[in-house]
Design a protein that fits this description.
single chain, 10-stranded mixed sheet, 10 strands, globular
Amino acid sequence: MQRFPAYSVLISVYAKESATWLKESLDSVLAQTVPPEQIVLVEDGPLTPELNSVIGSFCEHNKNLFDLVTLPKNEGLGNALAHGVPVCRNEIIARMDSDDYAFPTRMEKELAKMSTYNLDMVGSQIVEFISDPEHPVAKSDLPIDQQSIVAYSKLRNPFRHPSMVFRKSRVLNAGNYSADYLYFEDWDLFNRMLASGCKAANIDEPLVAMRVSPDFYARRGGPAYIPHIWKFKTEQLRRGYFTFFQFLGTTIPHILVCLVPNSVRSFIYTHLLRKGTNNG
């Protein structure tokens, strides 16, 4: 029987999250066929009584499993995760969002992939769902091998962050998460890790279900996104990670998608940037 290394799960939660969804997410983490040795939960600012109740119950029933990082105010995902990484006591860290769902064999398969091929970062395909993880509305079509991942990373994020497992030492060597790139915290880190020589792969099956709202795709844009897009992508160009033509090839379409009407943006995401399913 294969032996798996101990790992930590890193989750950030803030006041606008649903207590019910947090419970479902944590239940899925605890139901893994290879369970975690530690769960680091970063409280990004004061939480609601409902969220505190869920967290308190999990801590009470899972002694010594949870480590809480309490931040005095909400400053965003990048800042929260940057505080959480050093608290993880294991070299292997698994990311998870507080409203998503991990299928039971997620960690077993990702840890096996990481160990077999001596990888630094492993993700998977994901499905997106509105109310039930078993009835998704879309699924990803991400690259799976190193060469394809690096090429894809010049245009779009080659990973879905709640599916990611990575080595703590390589995250810290790449500079950890940054609070400088709102909405692009994960893509920024992953590109820095790839640039530093990290070996990566995606498992070509959905191991995590990401929760989306009915109007999720329509809301993924608008003029307010444009300064954040520009800041992140011009920094990639400055670092030399994007060539000028790659910068144009990723930035111009992204800005255009932000500016089109919501109905058009929703069509682009659901029909062009995702695979539809028959389970919606």
